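Job type: complex structure
Entries:
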Amino acid sequence: MLKGPFLDRNWMGQNPDYNKSDIIMLGIPFDGTVSYRSGSRFAPEQIRLASPGLEEYSPVFGKELADCNFHDAGDLELPLGNTKKSLDIIENNVEQIYKDGKKVLGIGGEHLVTYPEIRAISKFYGDDLAIIHFDAHTDLREEYLTEELSHSAVIRLRTKYVKPENIKQIGIRSGTKAEWDYMYKHNTLIKEYDELDLFLNKKVFVTVDLDVLDTSIMSGTGTPEAGGMTFDELMGWFRYLKNFQIIGADVVELSPDYDTSGCSTAVAAKVIRELLMIM
Amino acid sequence: MLKGPFLDRNWMGQNPDYNKSDIIMLGIPFDGTVSYRSGSRFAPEQIRLASPGLEEYSPVFGKELADCNFHDAGDLELPLGNTKKSLDIIENNVEQIYKDGKKVLGIGGEHLVTYPEIRAISKFYGDDLAIIHFDAHTDLREEYLTEELSHSAVIRLRTKYVKPENIKQIGIRSGTKAEWDYMYKHNTLIKEYDELDLFLNKKVFVTVDLDVLDTSIMSGTGTPEAGGMTFDELMGWFRYLKNFQIIGADVVELSPDYDTSGCSTAVAAKVIRELLMIM
Amino acid sequence: MLKGPFLDRNWMGQNPDYNKSDIIMLGIPFDGTVSYRSGSRFAPEQIRLASPGLEEYSPVFGKELADCNFHDAGDLELPLGNTKKSLDIIENNVEQIYKDGKKVLGIGGEHLVTYPEIRAISKFYGDDLAIIHFDAHTDLREEYLTEELSHSAVIRLRTKYVKPENIKQIGIRSGTKAEWDYMYKHNTLIKEYDELDLFLNKKVFVTVDLDVLDTSIMSGTGTPEAGGMTFDELMGWFRYLKNFQIIGADVVELSPDYDTSGCSTAVAAKVIRELLMIM
Amino acid sequence: MLKGPFLDRNWMGQNPDYNKSDIIMLGIPFDGTVSYRSGSRFAPEQIRLASPGLEEYSPVFGKELADCNFHDAGDLELPLGNTKKSLDIIENNVEQIYKDGKKVLGIGGEHLVTYPEIRAISKFYGDDLAIIHFDAHTDLREEYLTEELSHSAVIRLRTKYVKPENIKQIGIRSGTKAEWDYMYKHNTLIKEYDELDLFLNKKVFVTVDLDVLDTSIMSGTGTPEAGGMTFDELMGWFRYLKNFQIIGADVVELSPDYDTSGCSTAVAAKVIRELLMIM
Amino acid sequence: MLKGPFLDRNWMGQNPDYNKSDIIMLGIPFDGTVSYRSGSRFAPEQIRLASPGLEEYSPVFGKELADCNFHDAGDLELPLGNTKKSLDIIENNVEQIYKDGKKVLGIGGEHLVTYPEIRAISKFYGDDLAIIHFDAHTDLREEYLTEELSHSAVIRLRTKYVKPENIKQIGIRSGTKAEWDYMYKHNTLIKEYDELDLFLNKKVFVTVDLDVLDTSIMSGTGTPEAGGMTFDELMGWFRYLKNFQIIGADVVELSPDYDTSGCSTAVAAKVIRELLMIM
Amino acid sequence: MLKGPFLDRNWMGQNPDYNKSDIIMLGIPFDGTVSYRSGSRFAPEQIRLASPGLEEYSPVFGKELADCNFHDAGDLELPLGNTKKSLDIIENNVEQIYKDGKKVLGIGGEHLVTYPEIRAISKFYGDDLAIIHFDAHTDLREEYLTEELSHSAVIRLRTKYVKPENIKQIGIRSGTKAEWDYMYKHNTLIKEYDELDLFLNKKVFVTVDLDVLDTSIMSGTGTPEAGGMTFDELMGWFRYLKNFQIIGADVVELSPDYDTSGCSTAVAAKVIRELLMIM
């Protein structure tokens, strides 16, 4: 046999043993319903490759990746063009993770992947489940160009499983008038940290659509939207979330082929590293 | 009112009157089943914008676009994420074109759009219909990752409407073993011009997957494949086709977002201009 | 005839009827005098294509594009290489817009296009006309490399029609010493919202050179200049301008070919949407 | 003083002494009349920077750059936006080169720069002067969008100084019908080497519009046109030209900003190296 | 445990068992001595990721990858900045492969990686070893900028282990005069297939510097050089090589960061697939 | 001789006379130890070319480049692949600058170039020398992948010549746990301007790793790291530094090939212009 040494091709700092890990990082390369620019299917692998460009130590949280005890499970193989079957595969795998007493960290893919994740997780937490939703877009459409299953409708879809009062949205700056009326009516959009406090006793799922970040730092995404957060503003929210019971999370909507400099991919990897620190 | 002058935003050299035109150019921005790199939905508009970079005169055929009498009908609006409904809209519009006694020149979009085109056209020509298929890939899969409706299966799908002996394939250089066996068995793959002659009395539909061209000249496509034709080789085939009864055609699989220099888009526009010359 | 449905190729949310519109969006694809990186001639069409990537609703202003009642008139066809004739065509069309009792929203093209706009508009408003100028550069040169007609001299040129006391400049961070002396002498450069108040009774033309935004969010421009505004800072100024009588505006200097990620074009489209909201 | 060693920033292999050189390489960064994609003003410097990526030895001609005895004079500083004054500066400098008993090798810039070069050179050679024109485009327009001075009219313009029978065109594959009629009438377009032989006793100026090369190898140009020469085909012509009395040459229309891979610039540098070998 | 299905992240069609494989694909991400444009260290992984974009079946050779029985061993981890130590690691691993009775297929990295491969292999084959070298550059420098260990000197370096008469070079089109003299003297450069026949009884190592291909199809490389082979011309040589005893090979000098369209990487993957077919 | 006028190819606003200059700008194109993405060797020339895109006047400091009295010495020619010899050449040239009574402004190249600069300068200033270090990364590794001479270890290396208490670091946001412990122990990381005051009587060398800026504005660098400074924040520090005795400086780690829009290069040029203003 060869002695190498060989490069580790998994996410930097992972625990190679699924069974002994607390968090399962699951690549979900699905982008079948994207309405504008596609390509988020390539994100999980490209983020993985970019991860060694970071350090394993987070000065913000004073911890190393090794302290997070996560396993990189690889990327699901999904039948492109068949949305329903793809969502079922995602749901089944996420459900297994929770049966095994672990938490998921999904790496999209488009935002619709959050829907089967929530469908799976809600079986375990019921009304205790709350969602914290970082995004530029409301994702609250009832249908998008007549299709119910769409990345633009993902949060609305999730309301089948999580009531509006258990959803808080951060960073939203784009949507139809009907969507904004919905946000106002249900008071889902928040601006201050302490508006999250009513979730302190909840089991919280954190979903990060990377376009919540400003286009200046996240150009490699399907629907870039000016006027977003800086990276440090997002980290401010993450620091506050450290005190919550995060039982799952995902990071979605990187489109590496639009990231000509590689910087958006590097930012995505760092968002994931810091999210691991607070899970 | 403003006197301008204003730029014409339609395809260079078109006839603005649908009713008085012989050929209807129809943009079909569909890319829902693409297995590798997506984005052909942006092709019809970007090709249209690139068309004024060409001249209206073709020195190869000694004709001008005005002699082709074609109308640029614009691009269909298709429900992304719903393949079936999208194909129905395409089929209905193409059928109307033939009811109106005209020919279609479809501008994809992915190669699956040929399927509803053929479904529509076969109603008018039945067994007289033959297909000449330029492509790098066989597109003969029985299913692709379990999905029947897929751009990888488009030619096989069309065999429901056109028998294998009425299909000739040119430029193929990639496929599974099963697909190559199918080509050999049905003798669909040809290398010499005169192998087309048995279609001289047929009504011929010409479908051009732009990846038939070499990756050097067609980098902006979803599945680039080395070892393809030069532009002049494709023009050689077009010159031979001048003597055939071409009753419809399409040009598919440009992905403008991978065409960083704009050259693939310019090539696609020129392929379309020359195809108009022989229709 | 074809039933489609077809994609609308005009600016999202426009009123198709010139006569019934209040604001006329006029594409001005001129970039003949650019001193560094060219290509703003491609901006009006690429911004138009990017507009459907936005929503029609502005949460900042609580309005929809339909409420703005604007007409997308298309792009002027200008004789490249003949600056004088190009400026005349621009001036004539803008003059007609004001004869028809409407306002112009010019989409450049380079900044020199503001000059013929102002020449036309000043015929209607005389000394009542004031200019609010967002830019990274002073654009106050007396001549640039010996050419009087130049995008670097556009504001100075306009002083033939608008006195310096009726010009306020925002975001300027680059210029020659002579230009800065001119700004100090005439007190044109402002930093606080209320320095605009002396224009409250004026007829205000707002010209936005997109390089007023930071290079991080506006890389696709001819002369990128570090240290600019964030998008939200520009929106702050727009909110303040809501109370002014804006009788015309333009947005200039996007160079789409330098916008490899498409983000600058998306930002330009959003700047235009928000500008429509306050006109 | 510093001992370095320092990188030589001039064209690889040049003779630093103007007076002792036979050939003067003159950068002409002018792109003021370009009708489609601009940026050839950046070409002379970027080609210079790319030149050390080549070797100084040409295996095709068995010579080294040192044997060519050329001087890199640098790039002219031209008043952007003033076509007439720019052409005068070019003409004056080229005239000086011939007064000094040397030959010019102009590095454009757009193709219009050939016009003042020819104006200058024709003063020295009169009817002995012949032009060999490599290009994808006829460049024979009488006017382009009403402008007489245009890169699309450069060869027609030159006919003021060189009669049509003293012009041969190679590689042309695009033009209006009127331009092609002109070529046929004057028999300027040639396909075989020996059609050049009637120039064996002429003083030949060789002008190379790089878009004569196929778009696959020359994507970084303003008006890419499919169906062009390979590099080796161009070298075939160069080898034949070795026996002619070349008294001047230029290489034009590289647009480095569209050359995302750097390859077009490398090709341009190699074309120039081989052209030096035959001058 | 998770049921997936998961994407296979290894080279398409590999045998996962090292011990039962005949060919060991070894990623060698070293680019420490590159003289012009760097980044070949990223090639092995990006080629691996691109491999599923191909089919497993080669119509040229009528075989599938499964018939090649190769194992993807992953990429070596090399101490960047320490050339000597890196070369030792490469040599040791390659030596082990031959001790285990297998063949290596090295995936560079820069061309210098061939040097330790040959050092290792020559221990097993001595004077029976011959090298077939596809490249644009002679790689015969005695030293490059005073450094003996350099990718520009790799073939010269190998002459310590393989005599010049056991080296044949194909596709060379660039080098210093001294290097060309060396080639002529030792008759290493060949143009016809049958010039290889004197190696029919040799153990042949095939080294493919991807810049042997024309820049049009291989833009993503460190030192692009116009006038190279088409893909089909390279395949012609590969078909001829089918009858030789190939005991090892490598494919080097892809620089993925210069491959903006992804096409060069796709071409590299296909070169490797076809090389596997003849090993 | 030619009258031109010719473009000045040196840094805008330089003094052409080394002997009469106070500051020597020295291009140091070395990137031999870079661990992630390379290419900073191309930075000095590309920044030089971008410099005329700026104005010579700095409104922040109210001065012109002519007031800075600096000479652009060009770029050192360094033996790629030989780190030790390269560092010696750098050291010798910098030492000469100080022997001549001048200051250096080094333009990297990777960050390791600071090491020989400091080695040279420390001979003149001894314990009076202090370092102000702008960077995203600690650069304090004891070794990187077993190599002592590495851009990741540059600050630690410098501690051989400058004691930790004479080093202050600004903008650091990435490093190993050991590196952060080192920073805490030696109190090198500062956040407030006045923490610099203990250097008021020191001879200060300012080293600017451009990745101290946020990735949004500095995408063209080897190791992009989210969460960095805005350009204006860096200028705030520069304004404070105006009162210090800056006896040398460098600006490093631009990688132009990753700067697809040209903006990072423009930012680098502006950082250098402002740094000249305070030296």
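Summary: The mean pLDDT of chain C is 92. Residues 1 and 7 of chain C are 16 Å apart (CA to CA).
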